[in-house]
């Protein structure tokens, strides 16, 4: 398998919980990223988030951007 074809390590476990830290949507109204942020509900799992935002071409990169900007936090779930 070529180097680029190797499966990437998952950044987040699908059972991790998303917590909204800043509810103000930082994106331009009407854009896909605006819709992605609107899809996030406090306490939803990463798995549920990915299922909802797939129609807007969303994914884990959107989580990374929102974490870096201080709008959300992805919390580890207790084992």
Low-pLDDT segments = none
| Strands ordered across the widest β-sheet | 1-2
Fraction of residues in β-strands: 5-15%
Question: How many structural domains are formed by the residues?
Answer: 1
Q: How helical, in percent, are the residues?
A: 25-40%
Question: Per the principal axes of the C-alpha atoms, what is the gross shape?
Answer: globular
| Average of pLDDT | 86
Strand/helix succession: EHHHE
Oligomer: single chain
The number of helical segments is 3
What is the CA-atom radius of gyration, in angstroms?
13 Å
Cα-to-Cα separation, first versus last residue: 34 Å
Question: What are the salient characteristics of this protein?
Answer:
single chain; 79 residues; alpha+beta; two-stranded antiparallel ribbon; 3 helices; 2 strands; 32% helix
Write a brief caption for the model:
By secondary structure, the chain is an alpha+beta fold. The chain has three helices and two strands. The chain has a two-stranded antiparallel sheet.
Characterise the protein shown here:
- With 79 residues, the protein is an alpha+beta fold.
- It has one domain (12-75).
- 32% of the residues lie in helices and 10% in strands.
- It contains three helices and two strands; from the N terminus they run E-H-H-H-E.
- It has helices at 32-39, 46-53, 60-68; strands at 17-20, 72-75.
- It has a two-stranded antiparallel sheet with strand order 1-2.
- It is globular and about 30 Å long.
- The N and C termini lie far apart (34 Å).
- The model has no long low-confidence stretch (mean pLDDT 86).
């Amino acid at each position: 398998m070529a180097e680029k074809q190797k499966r990437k390590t998952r950044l987040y476990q699908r059972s991790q919980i998303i917590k909204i830290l800043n509810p103000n949507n930082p994106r331009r109204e009407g854009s896909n990223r605006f819709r992605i942020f609107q899809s996030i509900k406090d306490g939803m799992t990463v798995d549920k988030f990915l299922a909802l935002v797939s129609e807007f071409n969303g994914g884990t990169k959107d989580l990374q951007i929102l974490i870096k900007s201080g709008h959300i936090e992805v919390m580890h779930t207790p084992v």
